[in-house]
Amino acid sequence: MRILVTGSTGYIGSRLVPILLGDGHDVLAAMRDDSKASSFSWEDDVTPVHFDITDEKSIDAALEGADAVVYLVHSMDDGDFVTKDREAAQAVARAAEKHGVGRIVYLSGHVPDDDEDLSDHITSRLQVEEVFLNSSVPATVFRAAIILGSGSTSFELVRRMVERLPVTPVPSWMVKKVQPIATTDVLHIIAAALGDEPIPGSYDIGGTEVLTYPELLTRYATIAELSRPQFRVPLAPTPIVGRAVAAITQMPPGTVISLVDSLHHDMIVRRGNAATDTFAHAVDSLVGIDESIRRSLTVSSHDGTDAEGTTDPQSAADTDPSWAGGVVSIGRDGRVRHDVSGRFSRALLHPRS
After folding, report:
1. 205, 187 in Cβ contact below 8 A?
2. For residue 59, with 0-12 CB atoms within 10 Å meaning exposed, 13-18 middle and 19 or more buried, which class applies?
3. How many Cα atoms occupy the beta-carbon half-sphere of 304 within 13 Å?
4. CA dist., res. 39 & res. 41, Å (int)
5. Measuring CA to CA, which residue among 140, 137, 141 is closest to residue 126?
6. Residue 157: enclosing H or E segment and its boundaries?
7. Which residue, 273, 269, 253, is CA-closest to 261?
8. 348 band by pLDDT with thresholds 50, 70 and 90
9. 220: buried, middle or exposed (CB in 10 Å: 19+, 13-18, 0-12)?
């Protein structure tokens, strides 16, 4: 098929493109800045397409001739991103109907059953889902919570919180359950939704284990060979915590605050609604949490790695955001290494040294 991948230069999109090419699809790589294509090894194998979610004409032109659309656009770091994302989804749905697109595949975020008092982040994802599912074009929606992989926003949040805080404060409202999934499993499930026939509906995707957010921080610390004691903080206001986490991690503030605001809910796969059941053929076996983290920290055997088929989608790519990465890595020999080249890094990694 001719598949339009929106957000093709983003984290998931850039790693999905080579998989779709490997499956024999023609890929229309949608991007706002066409020059970004030159940063990726798949540049010569795709058709770059101008795509701006604020410009309905560009959306209409991009979808013309596409058999399917993979929608990977989110605007969490912008002002009124809830309205912006909903209106963009509506424009995409209209263009898909107009041009006879055969299906839409959307990577959403997990939406808890208790749909009261949802964060703007979750509300936005839910509204975009509803736009696509209510369209006449068959839509498949995948709801993911934490995606584990170097460069993933949720993974980088975990990485930086553990690496940068010798002691971890845990707000009482953050002790909720989550079911992380490896990047590579997400990619193959999306690719499976682009098989012979569309399988419409909304599906939860999660990995092999359910644990709490503090337990996930501990798992990272254990694999990274860091001592990170935790202590509970009662009655910590969510907005203050969000701003503090953004300052500590030095990641995009709007995105971080939106994600932190979502930690009031359990984010686990609902019984009978698992994408890994419906699309079981996509993955032989799901990657476990420990292996996901280790692979995310492992230095690739390729110099100048990029998001291409020759590298592990779990590992870092040169095209990942500038804020991605940390001071802990695992060599090809399996040994954990701490970058203690400066006094600041030594104090963070080993506060007693």
Report:
1. no
2. buried
3. 3
4. 7
5. 141
6. helix 153-164
7. 253
8. low
9. buried
**Buried/exposed 233-259: b ≥16 CB within 10 Å, e otherwise:** eeeeebeebbeebbeebebeebbbbbb
CB atoms within 10 A of CB 227: 12
Q: Are strands 139-144 and 68-71 parallel, antiparallel or unpaired?
A: unpaired
Alpha-carbon gap, residue 269 to 290, rounded angstroms: 19
| Beta strands at 328-330 and 336-338: parallel, antiparallel or unpaired | antiparallel
Q: Judging by beta carbons within 10 Å of its beta carbon (0-12, 13-18, 19+), is residue 268 exposed, middle or buried?
A: middle
Residues in Cβ contact with 49 at an 8 Å cutoff, skipping those fewer than 6 apart: 4, 28, 29, 30, 31, 61, 62
Mean pLDDT across 65-80:
83
CA distance to 49, 140, 332, 344, per residue, from 63 (Å): 9, 17, 43, 49
Give me the count of residues in the chain: 353
CA-based nearest residue to 85, from 93, 68, 98, 65: 93
End-to-end CA distance of the chain: 57
> Are 340 and 332 a contacting pair, CB within 8 Å?
no
Q: Please give the structure tokens belonging to residue 299.
A: 């230095």
Per residue in 114-166, pLDDT (tens digit) is 666 777 778 888 899 999 999 999 999 999 989 999 999 999 999 999 999 99
Number of other residues whose CB lies within 10 A of the CB of residue 191: 20
